[in-house]
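re: ur question from yesterday

yeah so i grabbed the chain u mentioned. its 305 aa long if i counted rite. heres the sequnce exactly as i have it in my notes:
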Amino acid sequence: MTVTALVSAKSSGVTTSALAMALSSTRPSLLAECDPAGGTLRAGFFQAQITAGTGLYHLAVAERAGEDALARAFADHLVRLDASGNRQVLPGLTDPAQAPALERSWPALAQVMRVLSDEGGYDVVIDAGRLALESGRLHSTLTPAPLLHGADLVLLVVRATDQSLALARHMTEPLRNELTDRGTGPDALGVLLIENGPRRAHEVSDALRLPVMAALPWEPDTAAYLAGTGSAPRKLNKSALLGAARTALGHLQAAASRRALHQQYPPTSSALAAQPAPAAPPAQATPQVAGVLQRLGQGRVDPRV
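ran it thru and got these structure tokens back, copy pasting raw so excuse formatting
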């Protein structure tokens, strides 16, 4: 399956979009709320039903005790999004002051998410929040850069307005450089368009010089429910937003598969060129990280209080 990271230049609906994708997935899904500025699902969608005793910060504490402790803690800090437990969320930070503690933990968490996708068959959606730059590079504390480096796709979430495009335009080159130098390549970068504004997909693509890989309609009632500011609309399961999110996941899976195939069989400039190099093998789970998959497959009590 895929690991997709969502980012923005400014608040553009990243969390709501990520939640819609996780809820609408036809496969097991994980939404990881990894915005260093703090999570909003706890107070929003979950209406403060989850205490500060559950969530991302505790994984940073566990990681310092070793991979075994991280594997044990990871499954215990997920919250179910549905009764079956097929869709789950890792709630984010309760205080931005906790962000520095995660800087050394991002690589280990990136490996866990890679394994969940490659070996567990999960659609992993990472809410990486608002981008922060430092000297033209991703800020090491205020952006979870290792999660972007390891993702199959990194989508810059923008609204279809000139203001949103103007803000996003300054982020495209640093992101492209980051993924070229440290990630899976510049072609991992694309746009998730929120159709709230007059600009069409081809105009957004031209303005940002990036492909629009997916689009979600502007549906205020469903968006308000997902943000925790409105009640569930009637016939939520027939929501245009959730339907489009399901379609978007399919498109993203196809895009990630094409990228993987291209990396496995790159074009050659000559018939005499060397044989295509095989693709890098999927991330192999250490025994400790593999324990995450085992624990996710076991029944457990929902940690909401």
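noticed a couple things. Strands lie at 3-8, 29-33, 79-80, 87-90, 123-130, 133-134, 137-138, 153-159, 189-195, 212-217. also Residues 270-282, 299-305 have pLDDT under 50 and may be disordered.
anyway ttyl
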